[in-house]
Amino acid sequence: MASSRGGGSQQVIRSGDMEKMSLDQLKAVKEQADIEVNLLQDSLNNIRTATGRLENASAALHDLSLRPQGKKMLVPLTASLYVPGTLDDADKVLVDIGTGYFVEKTMAEGKDYCERKINLLKSNFDQLIEVASKKKTLADEAGLILQAKLKQSSPSS
Amino acid sequence: MSSSSTALRDLQRDLENKANDLSKLQKDIAKSHQVRKKYTIQLGENELVLKELDLLNEDANVYKLIGPVLVKQDLAEANANVRKRIEYISAELKRLDSSLQDLEEKQHSKREAILKVQQRIQSLQAGKAKA
């Protein structure tokens, strides 16, 4: 039924295999698939938050680049304490590239960095979501067949 | 009669020991998997950093976070550091992989041994029930 759409040939073979499996095997398959689906879902969420953070950074950079030099501002020292300051040089930014390394970049380079990272994450996200949806249909099918088998076996026993 | 029951008891004790060994092995495998995952993540992060460093101009300013302070570092030095770290992590991953394989083989043989003992217990019990 649902498996007939989009790249379903592999799925059909798998569901054919599942019809022949014993109840215990089927249960194991379903459990395994569920675990993998959850894991993939977690990864997708992580990527989503990371993308959000980078987008925030990119927006902040853009905002900063619009301010003229010598602009008065309030700088947060803690969440509730701000001190007055002036904007000195908005063209040089320090970028955290991971594992404790920071690189001085110009505004344009910094924006480019954010852009690149966002694109990288997006492509990873797209790849992952494909795998995740495949796993999800597999898990659903296993669940359906499992239930059908349980129904079949319960009146006879 | 009594000799068969002592044999049965011996087998059961054997089974218990083997089951304990198996669960210990499984714990070790799970732990190794966790460590492996951590290293894989670190490797990925380091590779990203290396890619980023490779893109930089030679005169770019690179800083290393040491505790709460940023210390300026040579690009070449930073590059070498990251490369060395990647090498180390890769070697560590390889070592982990081989030890994991070893553990899994051990687990497999333990399982088979347990199955054999269980079968022997069953056949002994069946013989006893007949007698």
UniProtKB/TrEMBL annotation, chain A:
Protein family: Belongs to the prefoldin subunit alpha family.
GO biological process: protein folding; response to cold; RNA polymerase I assembly; RNA polymerase II core complex assembly; RNA polymerase III assembly
UniProt-recorded name of the protein: Prefoldin subunit 5
UniProt-listed Gene3D superfamilies: 1.10.287.370
PANTHER family for the chain: PREFOLDIN SUBUNIT 5
InterPro entries (alphabetical): PFD_alpha_archaea (IPR011599), Prefoldin (IPR009053), Prefoldin_subunit_alpha (IPR004127)
SUPFAM superfamilies noted in UniProt: Prefoldin
A GO term, aspect molecular function: unfolded protein binding
Annotated Gene Ontology cellular component terms: cytoplasm; prefoldin complex
Pfam families in alphabetical order: Prefoldin
Record-linked NCBIfam families: prefoldin subunit alpha
TrEMBL record, chain B:
UniProt protein name: Prefoldin subunit 6
Originating organism: Gossypium darwinii (Darwin's cotton)
Pfam families: Prefoldin_2
SUPFAM superfamilies documented for this protein: Prefoldin
PANTHER family found in the cross-reference section: PREFOLDIN SUBUNIT 6
CC terms in the record's Gene Ontology section: cytoplasm; prefoldin complex
GO BP term (any one): response to cold
A Gene Ontology molecular function term of the record: protein-folding chaperone binding
Keyword annotations from UniProtKB, A to Z: Chaperone, Coiled coil
Coiled-coil region: 86-120
